[in-house]
């Protein structure tokens, strides 16, 4: 393969700097005596004798060594510069691409690999997978996404810089153009500041009528640099958001569209139909609504039909047949909404309104006017109608109506034959100036212009003079104020201060460096160049348009034509046109593997032409600026070891696994041997090992003999192992002593494990009874039943049995506590815990009521007696004289009132006591 190596070796690089370069020697070192060959030859040809003392010889050797080291460093740096210049000249790599290669591992700005078309299709498929509409409806959105992912020419029109994957961006809601977030913020703030500065420079002025015109109201907004869509100041983007606006600072993902959050878009579709976009977060416009709706046709005569929501309506094949506005013909148009029939297009000969002329017109134009004046006489027979062609009677003579003089002050009714003249008074109509009145006598026709002399100031405010009111005051002074552009003066005569915008062409060279600004002269930066330039691929078969000035930094368009460069290996490696070196061959080698010397062909990736970078291992740097020299060669690498999987059985014959061909030797699988030992109970515990017969399942000569203990299962519940060596069933009973508490927890019981968990000899109930007898202490249970009495059973497990059969005596009484009895607890529960009252209880209750009534009567009598005594005492003290009859009656009335005050509370108390006893019963 020597000829192949020589052919694929890196071409020699010409000396681009045209400097003398001595030939390099193997190992990076020069032969002794060759570094200064020309100097020595020159000195050898000279006739000047050379000193040969030892000191001079050592100094010459040191000088020669220093020159040699310096020359080597110079030659090495020169070779590096020549190599970089060659790479820069053969393949241009933009600075943005280098940054992305360093940061993202050779990932393009849009997140797609160099020649990986499948990645683009995968991303497009993931974004459009939720769209179930017609493929034709996705045209605009799919084309926008395709251009974004494949053109690799996303450019910010403000800074003319590439919009990279890691940049924070803002997208216009109208034209969907990308801008850097900082660029659009600076653009918006600059536009708003300029509008405010221009508004501050404006001033109010007086017009020719002397009215003060204030400066216009400030309207602050900013616009998109491309489509000029206006936005409010609150719309200035403050945060970096994804396209759908759901997530701030979206994370970068290699399999998502750049600057996307990966969630469903969710925007309202346009036109508004109530549905939302179901695509993943995406740039550009949302596709038409793919939902289906059931609607009738436009004329509502056909049955409902399922259509796409974006379609809105559909048209059937039924004709309208409604009467048109002419009332004669029918509508012949196909399905359309009611009331939207087109005008009748049938033509017929129709007379005009006055009937003087006839012509052929459309039905919907049947009522037409000719240019003839009516000229029919009114009823007065003196005047004629002056109206143009009309239908119907002419009406009353307008001169027969009430009329006034020309100035309108005098109004009179006169015959139409009489002429109304002027009244002779002053006209006094308001002139056109709106300030003065006409001072002429009443006259016919329009009033003249206002000739009143008034003091007026010109528009610029520099001169003032008396002129007729109807004329405008101007002067010849030219305005020297600089216009809004900041470059040209106004130069308008008698300017009112509101200088118009500059009408001259800007003419500044745009940022592209080719075209000039064609807008009117303005302040600040010019709008970006809207021209397009063409960028072609390497073969020239595919081209794309990019922003003017971006030709050098824009990536070449993706070309689908086949690459014309010959392959470097023995395969036919077809691939699309590209920039730079051809991609490495990814086909399997397919040649016989001479490294493993097996029958399998080499399945590794083609390695006929592999770029190998080697460094000088014997390099010794002199200073920190020295770097080891790298040699880049295209070599044919040897075949790697064969990785074809072949079946290999393990040493013990347990399994057959797929192993690489180069390492296809039997080995231990790591499982236990598992062969049944001679004891018949245990198996070989050794790890998979070499045996005589792999198919055998019994003990082999290399297996370990049985040395295990007893493996016979113990009774259920026993946790103590058998201490005997491996033996046959059965084992001896377990006699381990166990101490535990009884069921009631008061006494400790001692038993053996065999007592509680004996070998199964009988039913489950018998075994459970035996366990209960072992753990019970035999004493009375200390637990209380639900009724509160102590359990009468012997120490037992679980809940106390039969709590409803408690026979403990309890006392119960009737509601009035007269009857008392002792009953068993279960009987008392059934009776509700109380006795019923009998006749004796009723008699006792009545007797108690009578006693209380007697006590109440006695108390009332004592109260009346005390009241009588107090009254007598009062009369004895204050009624010594003989009272008159009138006073005697008053005393009696007062006494009756006092008695009422005492009796009324007593009655209330009595009624309350009676109600109490009634309710108690």
Give the biggest sheet. Answer: 2 strands, antiparallel
Q: Order of strands in the sheet with the most strands?
A: 1-2
User: Strand portion, in percent?
Assistant: 5-15%
Helix count from the secondary structure assignment: 12
Mean pLDDT: 77
Gyration radius (Cα, Å) is 60 Å
Taken from the alpha-carbon principal axes, the silhouette is flat
Structural class: alpha+beta
Extract low-pLDDT stretches. Answer: 1-60, 91-116, 882-889
Could you state the oligomeric state of the chains shown? single chain
Explain what the structure shows.
With 921 residues, the protein is α+β, with helices and mostly antiparallel strands. The chain has twelve helices and 26 strands. 22% of the residues lie in helices and 11% in strands. The N and C termini lie far apart (128 Å).
List the helices and strands and how they pair.
Elements (H helix, E strand, L loop, with lengths): L1 H7 L28 H9 L8 H37 L4 H10 L12 H12 L10 H13 L3 E2 L4 E2 L6 E3 L6 E3 H21 L3 E2 L5 E2 L8 E2 L6 E2 L60 E4 L9 E4 L38 E5 L6 E5 L40 E2 L6 E2 L40 E5 L6 E5 L63 E5 L6 E5 L62 E6 L14 E6 L9 E5 L6 E5 L76 E5 L6 E5 H4 L7 H12 L33 E5 L6 E5 H6 L8 H40 L6 H36 L1
Antiparallel strand pairs: 1-2, 3-4, 5-6, 7-8, 9-10, 11-12, 13-14, 15-16, 17-18, 19-20, 21-22, 23-24, 25-26
Short recap of the structure:
This protein has helices at 2-8, 37-45, 54-90, 95-104, 117-128, 139-151, 181-201, 753-756, 764-775, 825-830, 839-878, 885-920; strands at residues 155-156, 161-162, 169-171, 178-180, 205-206, 212-213, 222-223, 230-231, 292-295, 305-308, 347-351, 358-362, 403-404, 411-412, 453-457, 464-468, 532-536, 543-547, 610-615, 630-635, 645-649, 656-660, 737-741, 748-752, 809-813, 820-824.
């Amino acid at each position: 393969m020597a000829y192949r190596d020589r052919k694929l070796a890196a071409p020699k690089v010409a000396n681009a700097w045209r400097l003398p370069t001595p030939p390099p020697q193997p190992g990076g070192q020069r032969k002794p005596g060759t570094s200064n060959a020309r100097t020595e030859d020159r000195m050898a040809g000279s006739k000047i004798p050379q000193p040969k003392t030892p000191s001079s010889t050592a100094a010459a050797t040191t000088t020669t060594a220093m020159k040699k080291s310096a020359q080597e460093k110079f030659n090495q740096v020169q070779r590096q510069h020549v190599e970089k210049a060659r790479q820069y000249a053969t393949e241009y790599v933009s600075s943005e691409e280098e940054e992305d290669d360093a940061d993202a591992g050779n990932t393009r700005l849009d997140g797609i690999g160099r020649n990986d078309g499948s990645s683009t299709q995968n991303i497009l498929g993931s974004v459009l997978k939720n769209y179930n509409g017609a493929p034709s409806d996705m045209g605009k959105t799919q084309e926008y996404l395709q251009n974004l992912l494949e053109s690799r020419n996303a450019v910010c029109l403000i800074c003319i810089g590439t919009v990279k994957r890691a940049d924070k961006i803002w997208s216009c809601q109208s034209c969907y153009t990308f801008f850097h977030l900082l660029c659009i913020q600076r653009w918006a703030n600059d536009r708003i500041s300029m509008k405010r500065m221009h508004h501050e420079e404006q001033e109010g002025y007086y017009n020719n009528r002397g009215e003060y015109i204030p400066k216009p109201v400030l309207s602050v907004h900013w616009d998109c640099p491309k489509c000029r869509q206006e936005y409010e100041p609150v719309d200035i983007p403050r945060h970096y958001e994804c396209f759908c606006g759901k997530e701030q600072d979206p994370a970068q993902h290699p399999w998502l569209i750049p600057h996307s959050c990966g969630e469903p878009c969710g925007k309202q579709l346009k036109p508004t139909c109530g549905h939302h976009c179901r695509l993943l977060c995406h740039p550009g416009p949302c596709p038409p609504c793919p939902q289906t709706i059931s609607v009738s046709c436009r004329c509502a005569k056909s049955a409902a039909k399922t259509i796409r929501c974006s379609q809105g309506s559909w048209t059937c094949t039924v004709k309208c047949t409604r009467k048109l506005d002419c009332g004669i013909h029918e509508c012949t148009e196909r399905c359309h909404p009611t009331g939207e029939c087109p005008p009748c297009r049938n033509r017929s000969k129709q007379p005009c309104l006055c009937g003087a002329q006839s012509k052929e017109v459309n039905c919907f134009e049947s009522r037409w006017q000719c240019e003839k004046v009516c000229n029919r006489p009114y009823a007065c027979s003196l005047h004629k109608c002056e109206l143009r062609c009309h239908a119907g009677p002419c009406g009353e003579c307008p001169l027969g109506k009430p009329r006034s003089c020309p100035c309108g002050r005098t109004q009179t009714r006169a015959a139409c034959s009489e002429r109304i003249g002027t009244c002779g008074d002053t006209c006094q109509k308001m002139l056109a100036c709106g300030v003065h009145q006409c001072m002429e006598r009443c006259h016919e026709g329009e009033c003249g212009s206002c000739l009143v002399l008034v003091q007026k100031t010109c528009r610029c405010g520099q001169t003032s003079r008396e002129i007729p009111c109807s004329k405008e005051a101007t002067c010849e002074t030219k305005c020297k104020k600089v216009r809004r552009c900041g470059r040209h003066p106004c130069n308008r005569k008698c300017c009112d201060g509101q200088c118009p915008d500059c009408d001259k062409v800007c003419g500044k060279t745009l940022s592209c460096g080719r075209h000039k600004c064609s807008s009117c002269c303005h302040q600040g930066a010019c709008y970006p160049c809207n021209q397009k330039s063409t960028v072609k691929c390497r073969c020239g078969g595919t081209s794309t348009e990019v922003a003017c000035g971006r030709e050098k930094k824009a990536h070449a368009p993706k070309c689908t034509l086949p690459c014309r460069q010959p392959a470097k290996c023995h395969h036919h490696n077809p691939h699309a046109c590209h920039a730079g070196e051809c991609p490495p061959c990814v086909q399997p080698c397919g040649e016989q593997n001479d490294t493993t010397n097996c029958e399998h062909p080499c399945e590794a990736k083609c390695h006929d032409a592999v770029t190998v970078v080697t460094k000088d291992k014997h390099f010794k740097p002199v200073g920190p600026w020295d770097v080891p020299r790298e040699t880049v060669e295209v070599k044919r690498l040897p075949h790697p070891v064969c990785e074809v999987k072949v079946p290999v059985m393990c040493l013990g014959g347990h399994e057959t696994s797929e192993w690489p061909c180069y390492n296809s030797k039997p080995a231990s699988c790591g499982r236990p041997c598992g062969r049944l030992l001679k004891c018949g109970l245990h198996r070989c515990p050794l790890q998979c090992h070499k045996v005589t017969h792999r198919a055998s399942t019994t003990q082999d000569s290399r297996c370990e003999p049985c040395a295990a203990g007893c493996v016979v299962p113990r009774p259920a519940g026993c946790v103590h192992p058998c201490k005997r060596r491996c033996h046959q069933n059965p084992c001896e009973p377990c006699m381990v002593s166990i101490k535990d508490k009884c069921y009631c927890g008061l006494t400790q019981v001692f038993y053996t494990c065999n007592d509680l968990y004996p070998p199964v000899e009988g039913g489950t109930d018998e075994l459970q009874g035996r366990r209960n007898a072992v753990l019970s202490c035999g004493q009375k249970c200390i637990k209380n039943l639900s009724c509160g009495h102590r359990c009468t059973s012997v120490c037992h497990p679980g809940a106390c049995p039969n709590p409803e059969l408690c026979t403990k005596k309890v006392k119960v009484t009737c509601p009035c506590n007269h009857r008392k009895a002792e009953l068993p607890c279960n009987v008392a529960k059934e009776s509700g815990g109380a006795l019923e009252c009998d006749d004796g209880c009723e008699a006792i209750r009545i007797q108690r009521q009578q006693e209380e009534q007697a006590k109440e009567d006695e108390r009332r009598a004592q109260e009346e007696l005390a009241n009588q005594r107090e009254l007598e005492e009062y009369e004895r003290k204050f009624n010594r004289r003989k009272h008159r009859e009138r006073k005697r009656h008053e005393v009696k009335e007062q006494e009756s009132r006092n008695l009422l005050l005492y009796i009324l509370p007593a009655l209330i108390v009595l009624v309350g006591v009676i109600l109490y006893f009634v309710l108690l019963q």
